[in-house]
Amino acid sequence: MTASATAVAPNPLREGLRLARAPRPTTLVLFGGSGDLARRKLLPALYNLALQRLLPAAFAVVSAARRPMSDEEFRDEVHDAVAQHSRTRPINEDVWSTFAQHLRFVATPDDAGYDRLAGELQRVDAEVGADGNRLFYLATPPAAYAPIIRAIGAHGLRGPGSSRVVVEKPFGHDLRSATELSRIVHEVFREDEVFRIDHYLGKETVQNVLVLRFANGIFEPIWNRQYVDHVQITVAETLGIEERAEYYDAAGAMRDIVQNHLLQLLALVAMEPPAAFDDRAVRDEKVKVLRALRPIGPEEAPAHTARGQYGPGYIEGRAVAGYRSEAGIAPASGTETFVALKCFVDNWRWEGIPFYLRTGKRLPKRSTEIAVRFRVAPHRIFTREAEGVEANELVLRIQPDEGISLTFGAKVPVQGFRIRSVNMDFVYGASFMVDAPDAYETLIVDAMRGDATLFTRRDEVEQQWAFVDPILAAWARGEPPLGTYPAGSWGPDEADALVRRDGRVWRKA
Known about the structure:
This protein is of the alpha/beta class. The chain contains 15 helices and 17 strands. Strands 16-15-14-13-7-12-11-8-17 form a nine-stranded mixed β-sheet, with helices on both faces. A six-stranded parallel β-sheet has the order 3-2-1-4-5-6. Strands 9-10 form a two-stranded antiparallel sheet. Helix 2 (36-51) packs across helix 3, helix 7 packs antiparallel against helix 14 and helix 10 (279-292) runs parallel beside helix 14 (458-476). The radius of gyration is 24 Å and the shape is globular. The two termini are 43 Å apart. Mean pLDDT is 91; it is low at 1-19.
C-alpha cells in the first residue's frame, strides 16, 4: 500500500529510517481488531505508518474478531479510531482513502470463521501481492492466546511465505503458565518467529538508554559500582484501573508493570555492552542481567519489598474513589496497586549497588524515568560552601517529557564561594523538531521486518517470572502486609521506609 501523490511529503529527518526499514510485502492478521488496544493504539499506528510511507507497497490488514461486521463497517470504525487517537491530526483523507482500501474484516466466532479467514488470506495474497508473508497479531485477552495459536495451525493460516506472530503482554500469569504458553506457541511457530511485545521497548527514550551508554565514551567508564551510588526506576500513573477491573484485580501492579516494563528497564540500564546491535546480542546481555538478579524470597521480602493499595483521595484537585470502591472490584480485594522493590544485580559491575524500583496507580503525576545517582566526590574541599548540594544525578525521562537531565554543582555568581545544584537538560522535541514515533509504530515495522531486537525472548520472559514468583508467594503469606495510601500521594509509608533504611530518599519524579 502506498500513499497517494497528494500525501504529505516525508520529513527528511525520517527519510533514512524509511529506506532502512522498508519491510517485505505483508498481510497483517489482527486478532481482536475491534477491541480497545486495536482502536487506541494499533490501527492509529498503522495509519501513521502509511502517512510516513513506512509500510510496504503490497500490504493489507485483515482483522478478525468474534462479532460480525462488514468491511465498510470496519473501515468506518477504524476512521473514527484514527480521528480520535492518532498522534497526527487531522486525518489526511487522501492517505486514508488508500489505506482504507486495504482493510478487511472476517468474523471468527467458530471454526467456520477460521476457514473463512483462510480463504480471505488467499484472496488478499492474489489481489495485493503479499507473497504469502503473514504477521499474526494477538491483540486479545490472554485467555484467547492458546486457542488462536492452535487455530492458526489447525486451519492452515500460515502462508507460503514468512509467518510470524506478535503476542501482547502478559505472557503468562507465572513461570509455569508462561512456559506452557511458549510450548503451545512452538507447536505452530519457531522461536525466531515469535515476537513477545513490550511496548515500553519501542519508546524512543527507552532505546536511547542504549545509545547514551554505548555511543558516548564519557558515560561507560563510570557506569559501575565504583562511581554509582544507586539507581531508581519509577513508573508512576495518575490513572486508576479504568475499564480493566477484571484483568487488573487478577494481575496487580507486580504482574502488570514490574514483571515486564520495570525489569526490562533495569536490564537495559545494567547490561554489558553487546557485541553488536542485533536481536541476539542485545537480548543475550539482558538475559545475563535477569539471571544475576538476587532472588527475593519469603525471608527477604519484608526488607526488600513494599506493596500498597490506593484509597480515596484527590488527583489534580478532583476527588477519586479508592480501589475497593471501583466498579468490578471486590470490597475485600487484596490486590496491590503499588509496588516498591530493592534489587541487587550480583555481578562484577553492580555488586552491592541497590536498584530501587517503584510503580503505582493514582500517584500525583504521570512519570516514567530512570535516575542514576552517582557517589559524592571522594574529597569534599567545598564542605561548607556546598551544604545542601545534591550528588550528581543522570535522569532519563521516558515519559511524558522525553529527555535527559544531568544534575551537578556549580558556583553561584556572587562574591565568595557558594555552590548550588543545577541541571543540564536535553529535550527530544526541542532538539530534533520532530515528533517521536509511537512505540507501536516502531514495533510493528520491526516485526514485519523480522527484527526482534526490541522484543522479549522466551528465556527473558521466564527469567522475569522466576524473579517475580517468589515475591508473589511471600505476599500471599502476608509478608510484608499490604499497606494503603491515599490517591494523589507517592505511595504507602512502607515504600519510604524501604529506602530510608539505607539513608536514601525517593527522588521527586
